Amino acid sequence: MVEEEPGQDPKSSPDARLDRLEERLSKVQRQEDARIGKAQPADANEQLGQRVLATLIGGIVGGTLIGWALDRLLGTWPLLFISLMVLGTASGFWSIIKMSNANGKKDR
Q1: Is residue 67 a contact partner of residue 80, using CB atoms and an 8 Å limit?
Q2: Which residues cross the membrane (predicted)?
Q3: The pLDDT of residue 82
Q4: Is the dihedral of CA 85, 87, 91, 93 positive or negative?
């Protein structure tokens, strides 16, 4: 009965037919993902870029907010605001440099 279905080669083994079926299913899945706009998972470079951006923004924003809060609390406007903003920026860049050095050693 199974051999009478159209599109099947009765001489091929069940494994070969399953392989062709899996290929067709993966092709249809890729087409469906493209049709609905499903994003592909991020690769390692994209993840590293997002981590670098988050580190830089976190350093700047964190230092700025802490400086602003301390300035309001202590009444020293804009001394701590500017100082901690610069320190936050520097720490963000320093963390990025450490990340790039760690990735450079890992690639070797």
Answers
A1: yes
A2: 52-70, 76-97
A3: 96
A4: positive
